[in-house]
Amino acid sequence: MNKIRKGDEVVVLTGKDRGRRGLVLRRVDDEHLVVEGVNRVKKHVRPNPLKGEVGGIVEKDMPIHVSNIALFNPASQKADRVGIKVLEDGRKARFFKSNGELVDA
Fold it and tell me: Which of 22, 58, 72, 100 could make a disulfide contact with 36, Cβ separation 3.0–4.6 Å?
């Protein structure tokens, strides 16, 4: 079970975008995520008249390693670590390590 999923709000812990918050747009693989507005690069695109693409400089979000981000805890307004526990009915659920509150209520 992944501790950080698509649609979660996360905080960047290290790097040039440290402290920035954003939503997880997609998982690239087990260890990399694309977060909106984080790790943004400028890519030079050539025009392609057959596809109707205009050339220029395009900004896009690049993947970031999962160890460099943490889930945002709305109760404490800070980044928080996440654990996984099994509930009474046998389901697995994520919880915040600081206060034990469930992430997916």
Answer: 22
Are 52 and 45 contacting, i.e. CB atoms less than 8 angstroms apart? no
**Mean pLDDT across 10-39:** 95
Contact call for residues 6 and 25 (beta carbons, < 8 A): yes
The two structure tokens encoding residue 87: 């509930």
CB atoms within 10 A of CB 38: 26
Nearest Cα to Cα of residue 102 among 82, 77, 78: 82
What are the structural domains, with CATH classification, of the chain? 9-79 (2.30.30.30)
Only one residue has tokens 């890519």, namely 43
Residues 47-76: what's their mean pLDDT?
94
